[in-house]
Specification:
The complex is a heterodimer of chains A (531) and B (57).
Chain A lengths: L1 E7 L6 H12 L4 E8 L2 H9 L8 H6 L5 E7 L1 H9 L1 H4 L8 H5 L10 H7 L5 E4 L3 H13 L3 E4 L6 H13 L4 E2 L5 E4 L2 E4 L6 E8 L2 H13 L4 E6 L12 H12 L5 E6 L4 H12 L5 E5 L12 E4 L2 H11 L12 H13 L7 E6 L2 H13 L5 E2 L7 E2 L10 E4 L3 H4 L10 H11 L4 E9 L8 H18 L5 E7 L8 H10 L3 E3 L2 H21 L1
Parallel strand pairs in A: 4-5, 5-6, 9-10, 9-11, 11-12, 12-13, 14-17, 14-18, 15-16, 15-17, 18-19, 19-20
Antiparallel strand pairs in A: 1-3, 2-3, 7-8
Helix pairs in contact in A: 8-9, 10-13, 14-20, 15-20, 17-18, 18-19
Chain B lengths: L3 H7 L4 E4 L2 H9 L4 E4 L9 H10 L1
Parallel strand pairs in B: 1-2
The chains are: A alpha/beta (531), B alpha+beta (57).
Chain lengths: 531, 57
């Protein structure tokens, strides 16, 4: 077995393409593992921790920077050297498969800039931008200058740039969805991480991407649908931004004849932003459901503004207020959850005390904290809400910890955990080896851009962790929710079924899964107190 | 005042994709018109230099 790194200077590829390259190399007989990453400091650190970058070609690796590509391969010497002998062969894009590209003439050069793209299609209306953060504001500005609305997936954009972009957009009747915008549903088109949901009377405005996915999927499951879902970016309702995109979105949905009700999903807003928002909602001609995740009190609003603090509650309110005739899926009763939790807790050893949540969805990390906080429980997190404790090192859990695996630390220069399960799988293995862990809480997010098999990516690690816990005499409990619909390519029923077969407690929503975990946690602390 | 975002919600969007190609290709597979931009970091990857050039040009 050898480990080798190959550096290609000044080669840019997007992180999803690089993940596919790594998968193709890993499939070579004799190769044990491979990564293809931009040589950002974070990625170099991960590779160094995995034992790469020493010995042969060490100088190239040390000198590599964020504009360079590094391919790291581990395996039998002949296989690794085979890959290293012709790295360019692995970096060829597969020929365009879809007919629209072929019909347009495969020989035709792709535009190199937004300006060239608009020249090719003057009727373009939305720019979908997902370049690395330091280049994102520049591309968004170019898009606005061309009269385009912007969906800005990139994160790591400064607050100043965000505000300037949003003000420029508003002055022109355009919108900037983002930065850090994961999801939008426009006129039936799912942009970014979006689920296959039917169209219907409920419009969504959301600063939280996975929150919008969960809301839309639960609305779909109840038989209703979404008119549009407009992402605004995680900071839009902070006082620094003042809800500029939220206001544009609310006005557009208010004017949209296909929208009967507007649901707004966000973390609690800043004081000033809340005032601006509530003033606007007070004159809104359509009913509004305002879901401020984890908020203990709702801001005073117009009589047609209904407040919720959990996504499930917001869905119920929205269905009812939009005149949905179908039945809402019943939730598990509290007493049923308590009984199940008691039976799980009874199987655990006294040393097993902690809950570890490993989330692909940032909103799920946040909402789970809200549920624990509501029950008087404190957890550590790399993205702590008020009242919770910050993790000193996001890579190492303490006591009960909820980790947002989509946070900057984990996604710099590599795909989001919804697409690439590698880091979450490693983290799961790490948590499974900790004898103080009682429960591992997970989320699985389906949709067009997500992994083809999010559950399959982690199930082998779940089984291995449980078996190894069993060997040391522990009972490790796995709890999960799956966000998605029966029309998503991964298949909601199939994904849920695979989890159930692996002995995981599967719930219809993150709120329900987190609720069950807090019951288990309460039982464990009672047990500790009774000793 | 022109209201291009409100107009967008009433029609069928046409997309320009800059960055992760999978985003654009997914929309294309779903039947939407998408122009894929062959993007690479400007001016050898120097974002600050690129912004200065924007202002000059």
């Amino acid at each position: 077995m050898i480990k080798l790194t190959i550096v290609r200077k000044n080669r840019y590829f997007d992180s999803v393409f690089l993940m596919q390259v790594a998968k193709r190399i890993t499939a070579v007989p004799g190769v044990r593992d491979a990564s293809a990453l931009l040589a950002t400091p974070a990625n170099k650190k991960v590779l160094t921790e995995l034992g790469f970058g020493h010995g042969e070609r060490e100088a190239d690796f040390d000198a590599a920077g964020p504009n360079d590509l590094v391919i790291a391969v581990e395996g039998e010497e002949a296989a690794v050297r085979g890959v290293a002998s012709d790295p360019e062969a692995w970096l060829q894009r597969p020929a365009a498969r879809d007919e629209s590209t072929l019909a347009a003439g495969a020989a035709q050069r792709e535009p190199r800039s937004i300006r060239e793209a608009v020249e090719a299609r003057p009727d373009s209306s939305v720019a979908v931008i997902s370049v690395p953060g330091e280049h994102a504001a520049r591309e968004a500005r170019a898009a606005l200058d061309q009269g385009l609305n912007v969906f800005l997936f990139s994160s790591n954009v400064s607050v100043e740039d965000e505000r300037a972009l949003k003000e420029a957009a508003r002055g022109r009747g355009l919108i900037v969805m983002g930065p850090d915008c994961g999801t939008a549903f426009l006129c039936g088109a799912g942009i970014g991480f979006a689920n296959a949901v039917r169209r219907g009377p409920i419009g969504i405005v959301g600063s939280s991407g996975t929150g919008m996915q969960e809301f839309a999927s639960l609305v779909h499951a109840a038989g209703s649908g979404i008119s549009h879902g407009i992402g605004t970016g995680s900071r839009d309702l902070s006082d620094a931004i003042g809800g500029i995109s939220t206001l544009t979105a609310v006005e557009a949905l208010e004017a949209d004849p296909g929208t009967a009700l507007i649901a707004i999903l966000s973390k609690p807003p800043g004081e000033q932003a809340a005032r601006i928002l509530m003033e606007r909602l007070g004159t809104c001609r359509k009913p509004v459901v305002l879901c401020l995740l984890g908020a203990s009190t709702a801001p005073a609003g117009g009589r047609r503004v209904l407040a919720a603090s959990l996504i499930d509650d917001a869905v119920e309110l929205a269905l009812r207020q939009s005149g949905h005739a179908g039945t809402v899926q019943p939730r598990p009763l509290a007493e049923t959850l308590r009984a199940m939790a008691a039976s799980e807790a009874a199987k655990m050893k006294p040393g097993q005390r902690h809950v570890r949540g490993l989330f692909a969805g940032g909103t799920f990390c946040y909402q789970s904290q809200a549920i624990f906080r509501g029950a008087g429980l404190v957890v550590h997190s790399n993205s702590p809400m008020a009242g919770m404790k910050a993790l000193a090192d996001p890579r190492v859990s303490r006591e009960s910890s909820f980790v947002d695996m989509g946070a900057e630390t984990f996604v710099e220069g590599r795909p989001h955990p919804m697409i690439d399960a590698t880091l979450r799988r490693r983290r799961l293995e790490q948590e499974g080896n900790d004898p103080t862990v009682a429960v591992i809480l997970l989320d699985f997010i389906l949709g067009a851009i997500s992994s083809r098999d999010p559950v399959g990516d982690l199930v082998p690690a779940i089984r291995a962790a449980r078996d190894s816990a069993h060997r040391r005499g522990d009972h490790l409990c796995f709890v999960a929710s799956v966000c998605g619909t029966d029309e998503d390519a991964q298949g909601l029923a199939a994904q849920r079924g695979t989890l159930s077969d692996a002995g995981v407690f599967v719930f219809s929503s993150n709120a329900q899964a987190a609720d069950f975990c807090r019951y288990v946690s309460q039982h464990l602390s009672l047990r500790k107190g009774s000793r | 005042m022109a209201e291009p975002f409100k107009e967008l919600l009433a029609g069928k969007p046409v997309f320009i994709n800059v960055g992760v190609r999978e985003f654009g290709e997914t929309l294309r597979r779903a039947g939407y018109d998408v122009v894929l931009v062959d993007w690479s970091p400007p001016a050898g990857g120097d974002a600050e230099m690129a912004s200065l050039l924007d202002e000059l040009l």
